[in-house]
Amino acid sequence: EAKRAGRGVVRVFDESMDESIRFRRQIEGGLSQAIARGELKMVFQPICSHSDLEVTGFEALMRWNSPEYGPISPAMFIPIAEESNLIHELGDWALDEALAMLNQWPGQYVSVNFSPRQFRRTNFVGHVVERTQHAGVEPNRLQIEITETAIFDNAERAADTLYRLRQMGFRIALDDFGTGYSSLWNIRRFALDCLKIDRSFIDGMGRERESAAIVHSIIHLGKALGLEVVAEGVETEAQLQALRVAGCSHMQGYFLSRPVDADVATRLAEQRHLMPVEEPVPATVSD
Ligand code: C2E
Ligand code: MG
Ligand code: MG
Ligand code: MG
């Protein structure tokens, strides 16, 4: 009866568990070779001012093209790397790649994602300082992006780490803001420069009064606290207009630019402003 049915269910469940564990192991194995095999690259997504689309910075995002599985999203492989020590190797590689770009860009900052485990590593501050000095760049051109998950566990220690990073001159951004736990408490307590509004709120702005209200509140709060606020995931003209009304100072999203390769990023950095997406075709000068 129940026992028999139960056993069937358990067996199916176990098989799918096996499957997913095996898959994770394969991903882990592939990832551990990915750097040496040159399968990873960094792409860069412009972050720009709302007023005149000036490119003020770039978010560095990792890409993995696996020979076995094709392109795999970091949303899938970063959490796997995070569960092993691989995250340190991948993260160090990403940081070095991102820092190297700064020597080619006239004045923008680069914003690098750090997972909770990276952030909590022993002597994280010393490590970042060392890599930055090695690259020969000013600390104020590196923005460290962390999520609330990274600071929630051990708030005391996190506050100290952020304080010291900021003392050294690094910029600190709280990523995916609004989705984490105890958001308001965190921004009061931690040394921050920037809030990145999670793209789920931007996505909801046109549809739900709630999302629009939250976006407005975050922008107000950020301003009142002297923080830069970046709206993530801006995909439409309508969202851009709504953010203008809300008084948002900075934006990032497919409507402005997808993440691009290093050489394209350098061209955008030199050009300094993103061209309007629908640029009017210049009238032909006739004689
Ligand atoms: P994130 O840090 O929140 O990065 C923003 C994500 O939103 C990126 O996804 C970006 O490509 C995507 N995005 C940007 N604009 C739009 C838009 O208009 N619409 C939509 N739908 N998406 C947009 P991506 O590159 O797939 O990265 C996913 C996540 O993986 C990142 O989220 C970050 O948490 C993690 N990640 C990526 N690269 C690294 C890395 O080098 N180190 C670490 N630790 N994590 C990374
Ligand atoms: Mg990010
Ligand atoms: Mg984000
Ligand atoms: Mg995210």
Automatic annotation (TrEMBL):
Domain EAL stretches: 24-273
Domain of life, source organism: Bacteria
Keywords annotated in UniProt: Phosphoprotein
Any one GO BP annotation for this protein: phosphorelay signal transduction system
Organism: Stakelama sediminis
Protein name stated in the entry: Diguanylate cyclase (GGDEF)-like protein
